[in-house]
């Protein structure tokens, strides 16, 4: 099964600088992954360099919901 990993810290950074192009690319890849039967994994990196899994996205509806949440703050 294909996986696409989204670093939540990166998404937050892109929100802060209003980089809509890069955010749209992330969500296009995420959508493509779940349409092909894959899974999107949301990861968060800690300041000490470790990371942990925040959530998994496996459906188009979940991708849409996460995208709406991210773009709501722009």
Beta-strand share of residues: 25-35%
Structurally, how many domains make up the residues? 1
| Mean pLDDT over the residues | 96
Share of residues in helices: 40-55%
Order of strands across the widest beta sheet?
A: 1-2-3
Order of helices and strands: EHHEEH
- What's the helix count? 3
Q: What would you call the structural class?
A: alpha+beta
Shape: globular
Radius of gyration: 12 Å
Write the layout of secondary structure elements.
Blueprint: E1 3-7, H1 8-16, H2 20-35, E2 39-45, E3 51-57, H3 60-71
Parallel strand pairs: 1-2
Antiparallel strand pairs: 2-3
What does this structure look like?
The chain is an alpha+beta fold. The chain has one domain. Helices cover 50% and strands 26% of the residues. The protein contains three helices and three strands. The protein has helices spanning 8-16, 20-35, 60-71; strands spanning 3-7, 39-45, 51-57. It has a three-stranded mixed beta sheet. Strand 2 (39-45) and strand 3 (51-57) form a beta hairpin. Helix 2 packs antiparallel against helix 3 (60-71). The longest helix has 16 residues, at 20-35. It is globular. The N and C termini lie far apart (33 Å). The relative contact order is 0.22. The mean pLDDT is 96.
